[in-house]
């Protein structure tokens, strides 16, 4: 059974951490799953966010899973997050997409929804 984790909550939300925990559990059990970051959840892909040393870093936790981390490009750009290609295209002076995350269109979300057996939104 394939699962799509649609993550829409901000990184400081308990729901965002529950999504990570489920992804870790699914990976540990070798279950088929995908993730998609949308709406306010895209801020997890901001490579310029600072997290105090005494707190867990959600961005790093997702990166450690070593899975594909697609992020809605429109939602990201609207929140000041861009990769090098989009920075150049939109005349933005720098890029800040965290390593391991990838900006994609909503067509990818549609494909993921169509191909999954179960969709969970956080």
UniProtKB/TrEMBL annotation:
Coiled coil: none annotated. It comes from the Bacteria. GO terms for biological process: tRNA wobble position uridine thiolation. The keyword RNA-binding does not apply. Its main location: cytoplasm. One of its GO terms (molecular function) is sulfur carrier activity. Belongs to the DsrE/TusD family. This is Sulfurtransferase complex subunit TusD. It comes from Acinetobacter sichuanensis.
